Amino acid sequence: MDVADILQVEQVTLRKAKKPILQQISWQVEQGEHWAIVGLNGSGKTSLLKIITGYEWPTEGHVAVLGNRYGQVPIQEVRKRIGWVSMSLDDRFHTKGQDTVLEIVLSGLHGTVGVYEPLGEADVAKAEAAIETFGLTHLTDERFLTLSQGERKRAFLARAWVAKPELFILDEPTTGLDLIAREQLLQTLESVATTKGAPTFLYVTHYPEEIQPFITHVLMLKDGRVVAQGRKDEVLTKETITAAFGCPLDVIVESGRYWVKPM
Question: Does domain 1-79+206-263 have CATH number 3.40.50.720?
């Protein structure tokens, strides 16, 4: 295992109640790559993310993240270098619905839900910069419960971005968005991912058409196994997508996006 890579997953298997959730997953992410993880519900995408972030432990196999092999380092120290946006954030912040966008983003500096640590002007400046990056400056003082779904997603992205992570993980970030809000969010991600010094992105989705041009590689899962992995243009073919989704599908490439339709 080369711990110098951004991510190294080696022969990882996860079982729950003797049921296999992930089976013999081996996967490597190197500096300069951005990956999409694609598959149907139940394919193992979120379980794999939980292992990468240290919230699940594999039944078998080994994981190294940002040069740190799990089991040999404090997981919490690795998490400080990871920005993670998941669907669970909406529920967690609902209990603190009076938090403003600024407070939500400031909480990302310490990985908490809510602000409990003393914060200075430099911290506020970092949060305001992240808020601007994701187009929410005009909503800085708005409270969580008044935000639209799209605005909440952007607030969570800014929260994950504020601590300048080296690995940026997005677990189905467009869930619940309408077509316009989805495309606007995807355009924002394309913009921030292509800025100088951007972190490595892992983007999880059911939908190949969400894979933006900045994504370089794809990991495709089905029933907890790897169907295909590698460069985007080599993986997003009608053969592999048909195998992963279990029905005949064709792929149309247009403006760097991959659109899927039934055959």
Answer: no
